[in-house]
Amino acid sequence: MKYFNLIWSSLWRKKTRAWLTLLSLICAFLLFGLLQALSVFFTAGADFVGASRLVVQSRVSFTESLPIRMLPEIEAMPGVKAVSHDQWFGGVWGENEQLFVFANDPERLRITYPEWKMSDAEWAAFKNTRTGVIAGRKAAEARGWKVGQKLPIKSNIFPKKDGSMAWEFDLVGIFDGIDESWQAQTLGLYINREYFAEANQFGSGFAGVFNVVLDDPQQANAVAQAIDAKFLNSPNETKTQSEKDFNKGFFAQIGDIGLIVSLILVAVFFTILILTGNTMAQAVRERIPELAVLKTLGFSNGTVTALVLIEALVLCAIGAIVGMLLASFAITGLAENVPQFFGSVRTNATVWFQAFLAMIGLALAVGLPPALKAGRVKIVDALAGR
Amino acid sequence: MTDTLISVKNVVKHYTRGKQRVEVLHNLSLDIPKGDFVALMGPSGSGKTTLLNLIGGLDQPTSGEITIGGKRIDGMNSGQLANWRASNVGFVFQFYNLLPVLTAERNVELPLLLTKMGGSERLKRANVALEIVGLKDRARHKPKELSGGQEQRVAIARALVSDPELLVCDEPTGDLDRKTADEILTLLQRLNREYGKTIVMVTHDPKAAEYAKRTVHLDKGTLQAQAA
Fold this sequence. Notes:
Largest sheet of chain B: 6 strands, mixed
Largest sheet of chain A: 6 strands, mixed, barrel
Number of strands of chain B: 10
CATH class of chain B: Alpha Beta
Low-confidence stretches of chain A: none
Shape of chain A: elongated
Order of helices and strands of chain B: EEEHEEHEHHHEHEHEE
Number of helices of chain B: 7
Strand order of the largest sheet of chain B: 6-7-8-3-9-10
Low-confidence stretches of chain B: none
CATH architecture of chain B: 3-Layer(aba) Sandwich
Radius of gyration of chain A: 29 Å
Mean pLDDT of chain B: 91
Number of helices of chain A: 16
Order of helices and strands of chain A: HHEEHEEEHEHEHEEHEHEHEHHHHHHH
Oligomer: heterodimer
């Protein structure tokens, strides 16, 4: 700490340059925080999902619905305990707010997704109300919905038989997650498939994807292969995978998020490395006579090296802390304002730890070469201006 | 004034510039007693600054012995020399060499950072040193806010602060006008007389040399006549 004044004063030797360098570091770590938070969310977001469920989708794409007649066939297969189905409804709330709405069978949903918790009365109301809809707690709280109210929801895919895209549902229940991870996912809604099948213009023969609960999770691969084999060479070939892989595949539709994030960050940090490295090198070059004076006064080579390295570390640490704090604020703002997409994105401990490692790496990369050079300064030559 | 503080024996120093070997000091011997004030004079390239650097432990001789205060410094490695300089020598340069980012008192405090002294004690001693050179009221000023003479006084305070026995001054008045130079030389003289500091000063200026107790002339790397 006794060297703090010396280090801090040296850091701000040229204020404009120091501020510009600091701003570039802040921007780099702001981007790092934002992108890593998204990356962690996309790559680890499905970790809470167990391996006891399979998702059967069309081999072509999950946007291609499978026929409902396949349900009893899948249900009858060895190792299958229960089956439900999810049909993407394409719901829009208000002017243009996207909702995650699926048409499902209430009883089957309750069996295949025990992670959704709701009172028996609400499950019964969902089953018995044709126009019933249940909403996840986060989805309901974000819009102030209360059980008993009518929810006008448009579909951007399915018109009603009268040609209207405007549907109206009765909110009969609000479900919670079984734990914190599942609670964070309570962003969707389920409508009663029976009503949906009767009322939509395209008919009742399709089911979207099937959710398969297994007797034994150890048999997941075998059952998945058996399902795909059963429908091979049929008009509805299937692709069966674990729910976790399905979710990852869903996000992969956007692209390889991890790779995209990594490439952007490599570009950002490479640029920062060049900029900050050059600035640090220049700052040390300018101070060679001053470093020689410190050595003359008795500062050892190691102390001078350490002083320059700590200077780089302090600069990078300030940039990292401010940048990451800004990223946290930005992400919290995003999560609060666009909960349906960013509700679970956080600059969590993993992201902060990654930022810490990036900061140390950057500080060493930009600080070590000039620090070593500073340590090697020859007093007599430096004082003589050689 | 009979105890020898600085003993230089048969010192040879040569540099290699490219493929050329340049011998700067030729078998030079010199004794400086404790409490002396010596002016080293001679033409450019005579080896004055090289000798001063060797006495101050900033450089090592090619051969020969240098003993300061009874301790051989010619065989020390760079770390040992750094420690030795920190507690035994104060340096004053022609261009002051203050750190521009630090205030006067923080500049003076620098040598004390290498000690185990606490922060308040360091600043207290720095201010005492500034008081000795008559600049206590300028403690919070940065070098660019001071005149050349004031900067040199701060540099002298920095050289004094760790209370070394030896002050090594390289053209301390080379960048100053006559009047200011006289003030600085008077200050050095006072440090020698009142505080018993042994001073070795390189100068081109015969008037500056008059402030010393004796003058040693160098020419082409060898000692010439010594004037009292």
